[in-house]
Amino acid sequence: MKLYTATETKKIDNLAIKEKGISGYSLMQDAAEFALDVILKEFSPIDELIIFCSKGKNSGDGFLLGCFAKEFGLDVTVVMSNSPKELTGVSNKAFQEMKESKVKVVSYKSLKKLKTSSKAVVVDALIGIGLEGRLRKNIKESILALNKLGLKLPVVSLDIPSGINPDTGNSDDVYVYADITTTFVAQKRGCFTSIGKKASGEVIYSNLEIPNKLFSKVLPSSSIIDYEESISKIIFREQGAHKGNFGHVLVIGGDKGLGGAALLASKASVFSGAGLTSLVTRPEHVSASLVSCPEVMVKGVDTGQDLEEYLIKPTVIAIGPGLGQTAWSEQMIQRVFWEAEKRNVAVIMDADALNLLTKLKLSSALPKRLILTPHPGEAATLLNTDVAVIEEDRFKAASRIQKKFNATVVLKGSGTIICHKINKVQKWGLCNAGNPGMAKGGMGDVLTGVIAGLLAQGLTLQEASEAGVDLHARAADQISSEISELGLTPSDVIEELRYLLKYD
């Protein structure tokens, strides 16, 4: 599924108006009709709509929604954050049509006197994709009042929850919490990452019957990951295949007291289908690792020199889970960089390997085939900034890391982003799966192992990263649906992988 920025969406809108003669007002009517259909389908029986509007085109959708709902027989109240005198163009035209329908209009300042039905639905038509800068006082107060009603009543946002940046999914201020977002013309990428993912609720989309060929003239740089397309390339195995056909993953990590992280990554590689998986760790972790997962070949090493012989055969190296930041850790990563450059082996770096990348200033000797998997804190370290800057625009942050290290970047979080470069052009993939139960130690280690296992089987850096992220999240969602998010563990996710990786 393709995702669009506000600018890209407006381009499609304008193309529909100029090239196909579709009026802006008719698009507004179509959006309102679609929203009403969704509301009636999802929340019936209902008897009332409370529609919050301001003065932009998004509010025009809300005014016409009020008209259609009134004609359908619902009670309708439009709550204005602005004076109707400020309305212009198609928004004013829609308002006048609504007035002729005798829809009740009140100011947001008089909401305390408003009595609502228990079967009412609240509609957010305040801003949409027109968000610019910080919210004005009247809009902010309207959003707060809307959210208060939303504690008892369902909320539907038109296009995108007001207060959410349509491009980044971030918010600088208050924002609407929607149960459903009806989005029009194009899917907005801000609905699928950062705060926007939570705020949007269920996203229900209509292209408003704009011809498909117009969409081909505006090519977005972002899309929702479809892991099945990538997985299909490896999931069917020929008769007569052997372990050597499916790659050899070497996981390096597990400093003193941190052996579990490296083991989780190793097990995830095995369960993702890698032909061979080896683990290099501290000697004291060897016995426990073999007992936990005998399918993994475990070696204990004390120095970087000891590591050298184990770097010859692997096709993929995953370094970082439980690596630590000691002298031992530094020796491990320096040796890996030397060998990766010499053999052009693919390298995945996670956790402390990312911190050491900056600490040791290794960017001048980076592997040519490199995947970085930072969470926001690690991303901040890589860019020498703070987490707030990363979260302000996750797309920009992933882009900067990709450029700095010439790597495929997996920026973890709500709506994980994968940034890569194709033919010198950056592209972003977004994961639409996952749940808060994944916010737990060890989940990132499992993801590293999954990506490594898929990469070993022949997927490209981009394919393995995108498919691995989505597969990992889907496994977590499946387990959470059976038990709970609170009780979800990284080991549960590993076990679930094999059930998702089956040929139907």
What would your notes on this structure say?
The chain has an eleven-stranded mixed sheet, sandwiched between helices. Strands 4-3-2-5-6-7-8 form a seven-stranded parallel sheet, sandwiched between helices. 52% of the residues are buried. By secondary structure, the chain is an alpha/beta fold. Helix 18 (461-482) packs across helix 19. The chain folds into two domains: 2-217, Rossmann fold (3-Layer(aba) Sandwich); 227-234 and 243-500, UDP-N-acetylmuramoyl-L-alanine:D-glutamate ligase. Helices cover 42% and strands 16% of the residues. The longest helix is centred in the last third of the chain and has 22 residues, at 461-482.
Under CATH, the topology of the largest domain can be stated as: UDP-N-acetylmuramoyl-L-alanine:D-glutamate ligase
Give the number of domains.
Answer: 2
Within CATH, the superfamily of the largest domain carries the name Ribokinase
CATH architecture heading of the largest domain? 3-Layer(aba) Sandwich
The main sheet comes to: 11 strands, mixed
Give Rg in angstroms. 26 Å
Percent of residues in β-strands: 15-25%
Helicity range of the residues? Answer: 40-55%
- C-alpha geometry: elongated
The CATH class of the largest domain is Alpha Beta
By DSSP, the count of extended strands is 18
Structure class: alpha/beta
Mean model confidence by pLDDT = 93
Q: If strands are numbered along the chain, what order do they take across the biggest sheet?
A: 1-9-18-17-16-15-14-13-10-11-12
First-to-last CA distance? 23 Å
